[in-house]
Design a protein that fits this description.
30% strand, alpha/beta, 2 domains, 285 residues, 6-stranded mixed sheet, globular, Rossmann fold
């Protein structure tokens, strides 16, 4: 299975949202990282045919998705960033409604919905109205509707937004459990979530693909450039102007700082093991 993006461009009047994006995706989980406005949501909307490119093409197993039409949409599961549920529906009724819209036969839905509710840990609230759900439960019902049609391509835009740490761990487990035979693409601003779920990373900046590789390969690029220092307020001001500060922690009248870049002369620098956050901050911010 292959999803191939070739020379993809998207313009809105005078703004070019995407510029010559080239990516080839096969089975696995891909993290999509970039600042707000980088073009992540635009790319996802085009991949789901909710929007269309200005130029370039997308191929699924060698055929253009615009020509495949419904055949392509039948293999997609999509959870957009802004996701609303019908408040008067129960969890079961909502999935039954969404399944009908997707063209899934009634008899198949009757067997599938209970299994999916069990899978996303919502079986115990199947008859409760979704307007009583917590933010995390609403995200899980969103995932449930996205996988109703057993998609080959699953696209999740900011799926962990607003989730507490426990819900984020639960979400990570759900995605990991179903990514073996699918192409899963997810974007999130929570770098640790991508590190926990994805194997590959696609970095987008200002509408362009900056880098694409295995996470461990990208992290290695900042090895030997991640440092920790203990500084006073004046030293911190100078440091923050000259280096990319990752994290700071007040310790009495001193500040413990993690930063990426060259060693900072004049004070003791402790070398640290690099992380995905270090890499991301060094190339995107």
């Amino acid at each position: 299975m292959e999803l191939k993006i070739e020379n993809l461009c998207k313009s809105y009047r005078k703004k070019q949202a995407l510029k010559n994006i080239n990516i080839t995706l096969t089975e696995g989980t891909y993290g999509l990282l970039g600042e707000n406005g980088a073009g992540k949501s635009t790319l996802m909307r085009i991949l789901t045919t909710c929007d269309f490119q200005s130029s370039g093409k997308i191929l699924f197993n060698g055929e253009e998705i615009v020509k495949l039409g419904e055949k392509y949409r039948d293999v997609i599961g999509y959870m957009p960033q802004e996701y609303n549920v019908y408040p008067s529906f129960t969890a079961y009724d909502f999935l039954d409604y969404m399944g009908t819209l997707k063209g899934i036969p009634k008899e198949k839905l009757e067997k599938k919905i209970p299994k999916i509710l069990e899978f996303v840990n919502l079986a115990h609230v199947r008859n409760k109205k979704v307007n009583t759900f917590s933010g995390g439960m609403k995200r899980r019902i969103g995932i449930a509707q996205a996988i109703l049609n057993d998609p080959k391509i699953l696209i999740l835009d900011e799926p962990t937004a607003g989730l507490d740490p426990k819900e984020r761990i639960r979400f990570s487990n759900i995605i990991s459990a179903m990514s073996k035979d699918k192409i899963v693409i997810l974007s999130t601003h929570i770098v640790s979530d991508i590190e926990a779920i994805a194997n590959d990373l696609i970095v987008i900046k200002n509408g362009e693909k900056l880098e694409e590789d295995k996470i461990e390969v990208l992290v290695e690029k900042v090895r030997g450039k991640v440092w920790e220092v203990l500084v006073n307020q004046d030293e911190f001001k100078n440091l923050s102007l000259e280096r990319q500060v990752i994290r700071r922690k007040q310790e009495g009248d001193k500040i413990r700082v993690r930063f990426v870049g060259d060693i900072y002369e004049g004070i003791e620098n402790k070398s640290l093991e690099p992380s995905l956050e270090d890499y991301y901050m060094s190339v995107c911010i």
